[in-house]
Amino acid sequence: MLIGLDIGTTSLSAVVLDPASGSQAAHRTVANRAGSSPGPGRAELDLARLYELAVQCLAELVAQADLAPTDIQGIGVTGQQHGVALIGQDALPAGPAITWQDLRVQEPLPGSDRPVLERFISAAGGREAFRNTGCLPAAGFLGPSLYWLRLQDALPDLPVTACFVPDAVVSFLTGAAVVCEPTLAGSSGIFDIRANCWDTTLLERLELPEGLFPPIGGAGDIVGGLRRELAEAAGLEPGTPVTVALGDNQASFIGSAPEPGHSLLLNVGTGGQISARTDSFHFIPGLENRPFPGELYLLIGGGLFGGRSYAYLQGFFQQVGAELLEADVPDDLYDRMTELAATVPAGSDGLRCEPFFTGSRIDPGLRASFSGLSPDNFTPAHFARALLEGMADGFVAFFEQMEPVVGKPPLLVGAGNGVRQNRLLAQILARRFEKTLLISSHMEEAAVGAAVAASVGLGIFGDLETAAAALLDYADAVEP
């Protein structure tokens, strides 16, 4: 058996995958209570607390699966991209991690009228300097966050390693030095995804020491064995191999698509991404080109308009109930919102929504809007429907940018809880793309993808294509 562990933003999830049948023997989720917001626009993680939650998640998974410690052959890890964790000697954190949701670089420092992100891009040589990174830097990226720390004289002295939160977890589980895989490194804004290395020219211009960054490994590489005390706490065998962490977007693609070369993936979680695999590098402003195992690439439209946008609307409805009606409002209105939205015809009777409540990757100042309001569509049901349709429109806009490169992949695949738990959104997506939406048979697609990659690194399968064909299938099909 194999374990896949996903260090997510709102939760940690783990699965036990049987490589003989492709079935899940168990899956477990615990809330990620390690996050904090120390100020407006700040998003951080207490890594020590996160480590405790990771061990708890593994222990509960093993207990649920009722397996002997020796039944687990290896552990694959994935998790949230962007952000930065600073790790000192002995895998100990050198302060809180800054996550991908952090917005501090959008603000100017005292005595300056330029946002730090703007200064970062200028110091690096302008937007053209990032052509080989596959993406333009944005708030929450590792590179700009490190630059903010440097400007504040807050970078710890070497030896310290700047990495991603999933990398830090792997280092903690094994006690080994941090190793970073390109699927995570490529989300930093300072990694050359064509040369497969940290961009030393950018580091020099930004005055970030090269010794701050970890060596680069490959998908499925074994970083080390599970530390004895952690193995005993989790009910696993000491020394169980732990493989290098993958970026969760690529891991979700690996864990969702039995035919990865012919699939367009729509992943809706807290955010939303549309992804298609390509054989070569393409630089398209507004899209990201991320590394994919096997010297391939994943072309991605990444939006900040996933489940979090629906949560903002829920929060508004709850506030109306509590403050205007003085009513006891349920904590979870999602099902009721979707029931109401389903009573509204496609097109929301002319109401349109652009669900960019916290901006976009290329325009952080962009904000959400509802337009086309009339007395007939000024209802909670129409607002809910229009927001879901706005999310679908965001995916279509990204696809129109990538279509000249990827064509029309024959398979449309849906992943993430936003698709799996919201049938109406799945139907809206299928209708907007005019294609049947196939939903993966596996829950926790990113964790499954980490386990699939580990199966290749451990020699169970020869490559990801073979592993995907053997281990993955579709559980549902939503017609347009």
Our Rg estimate from Cα atoms comes to 22 Å
Low-confidence stretches: none
Biggest sheet overview = 7 strands, mixed
User: Mean pLDDT across all residues, rounded?
Assistant: 93
- Based on Cα principal axes, name the global outline: globular
Distance between the termini: 37 Å
Query: What is the share of helical residues?
Result: 25-40%
What descriptors fit this protein?
seven-stranded mixed beta sheet; 34% helix; single chain; alpha+beta; 15 helices
Could you characterize what this model shows?
By secondary structure, the chain is an alpha+beta fold. Helices cover 34% and strands 20% of the residues. The protein has 15 helices and 23 strands. The protein has helices at residues 47-65, 116-124, 142-151, 165-174, 182-185, 200-206, 228-234, 248-254, 307-324, 334-341, 380-406, 417-420, 423-433, 445-457, 464-471, and strands at residues 2-7, 11-17, 24-31, 35-36, 44-45, 74-79, 85-87, 97-98, 161-163, 191-192, 197-198, 222-225, 241-243, 246-247, 263-268, 272-278, 288-292, 296-303, 352-354, 369-371, 411-415, 437-440, 474-478. The strands form seven sheets. A seven-stranded mixed sheet has the order 17-18-16-15-21-22-23, sandwiched between helices. It has a five-stranded mixed sheet with strand order 3-2-1-6-14. A three-stranded antiparallel sheet has the order 4-5-8. A hairpin with a 4-residue loop joins strand 10 (191-192) and strand 11. Helix 1 (47-65) packs across helix 4 and helix 14 crosses helix 15. The mean pLDDT is 93.
